[in-house]
Amino acid sequence: MNIRTSLVRLARVTAATAALTLLTVATSTATPAAPITNDRAPEGTAFVDASSLPAGELRGLDQPIPYAQYARSHGLKSVSRQASADPAPGDQQDLRQQCANHAAQAKTTTGWLKSRFESCQKRPFDLVLRDIRGTTSLGRLKFDQWVIGFAYDGSRRVDYVASIENIWVQAIPTEDATKWRVGQHFHHSVNASDSDADPQVTAPQTVNREELLGVWDTKPHWSLTYVSPDKGSLFSQGNQQRVFSTAAMDLSAGSPNSAPFTEGSNVFNSSVRYDYAGPVAGKHKGTVFTKARVELVMSQKDPAVNESATHIYDALNRPERTFPSWPGKNVPGAKEPLRRVVDPKKIDENRQKSIQECKKVWGDYSGSGLECDEYPFASTKEGSTKGDNRFSVRLIDGPDNRKGGERLNEIYTLNRMLDGDPFYVKITN
To answer: pLDDT (tens digit, 9 = 90+) per residue, 113-155?
Structure first.
């Protein structure tokens, strides 16, 4: 059942209707819980930014308590909570801690992307249940939504572990929060225009989970696995079997006395690419989160590549010191990405043009132990043959030049970089 069908079904079984108001910040003076009325909210209000609400909006609903405590106070027996053992592949607990340390990014729709293989969303929700007129507040529901994502270098698969955690509630005397529900509803799509021929993604058998708060509180986690079937090794025939797909999630919430909360569309969104590109990507097949930033970091204090690093630093920050020289010169890579090239012919053309430029400036350097270093790299679309002269060449120590090339190739293979994939360069002191 998809999310739209689920929401329609929920709406039909609702005994009375209300709306849920999303709050992101809430502070007020504590008072006894009671129905709160005001005349400012229009009929059917669904979301109101907390900063736009009057201070009295939460009067009587400013003392939420943990759901387990609320349930016990309403005569429900305590149920043992799910063990804290990691239910996810990989080191989920470590990723969750890092995610919490990147709270601003983690609460966005895409979440915090640690790498092309790890993603994490921790998104807090603070909801107030209202009647349909928007004049009476029935209760307050707070929780954290988590979605941990793992892509794989070596497998056309992506795993997500979703959860509703840290549930806090407060309800007016006539409202029963033990009957409130929250739902997570996953769906996916395939971008056929960007994918290779016959793109396929197989969804998990269960993509919807809608539960009472008590069930979420005792068993918060559930897992989903998406896979893209392949036809074997076809990369030598030019078919990398790339599949660009999006996995997204909608959130629903409601109670027997409220209409379902339907403003939770696309609260999580994950862009994925499956491929079977062969050795050019390192392991022959795999999956990546395409919106993750890939960055080549080199240090001017690293004796193995200090000359390469200094050359790149000058090209990015002091282009007037680099050749070819022209007024207003600027070079991409810091804010404007570079894009990988895998065609050996194009790479060689870039390299030969750069060598010619080195000879124009320094003459014949054969036998000197120096080599012509180029930036942007020969293996990028922004290389010297692009035609805009936004490149730099410099003679540097041969081993340093080769070690810099090795570092670049490591970035390509460790991140499954295919032709046209973007990346950035950062030089540290």
So the answer is: 999 999 999 999 988 887 666 667 778 899 999 999 999 999 9
* Burial letters 215-231, b for 16+ CB under 10 A, else e: ebbbbbbbebebbbebe
Burial track 24-59 (b if 16+ CB lie within 10 A, e otherwise): eebebeeeebeebeeeebeeebeebebeebeeebbb
255 token code pair: 């109670």
Q: Say if CB 365 and CB 373 are below 8 A apart.
A: no
- Residue 374 token pair: 């180029």
Residues in the chain: 429
Radius of gyration of the chain from Cα atoms?
28
Measuring CA to CA, how many Å separate 378 from each of 37, 65, 208, 373, 383? Answer: 67, 60, 48, 10, 5
* pLDDT tens string 293-327: 999 999 999 999 999 999 999 999 999 989 999 99
Compute φ and ψ for 147, nearest 5 degrees: -140, 110
Beta carbons of 81 and 186 less than 8 angstroms apart: no
Per the DSSP assignment, residues forming a β-bridge with 243 are: 274
Q: CB-hemisphere CA count at 13 Å for 16?
A: 9
Closest CA to 292 of 195, 417, 381, 167: 417
User: Do β-strands 136-151 and 118-131 pair in parallel, antiparallel, or remain unpaired?
Assistant: antiparallel
Q: Where are the domains of the chain?
A: 3-289, 295-428
Helix (H, G, I), strand (E, B) or coil at 14: coil
Counting Cβ atoms within 10 Å, is residue 347 exposed (0-12), middle (13-18) or buried (19+)? middle
Q: Give the separation between CA 72 and CA 178, rounded to whole angstroms.
A: 10
Q: How far apart are CA 258 and CA 253, in angstroms?
A: 9
User: Are 21 and 130 within 8 A, CB to CB?
Assistant: yes
What is d(CA 153, CA 289) in angstroms, rounded to the nearest whole number?
A: 11
On whether the CB atoms of residues 247 and 266 are closer than 8 A, the answer is no
d(CA 160, CA 247): 10
Q: Are 356 and 364 in contact (CB under 8 A)?
A: no
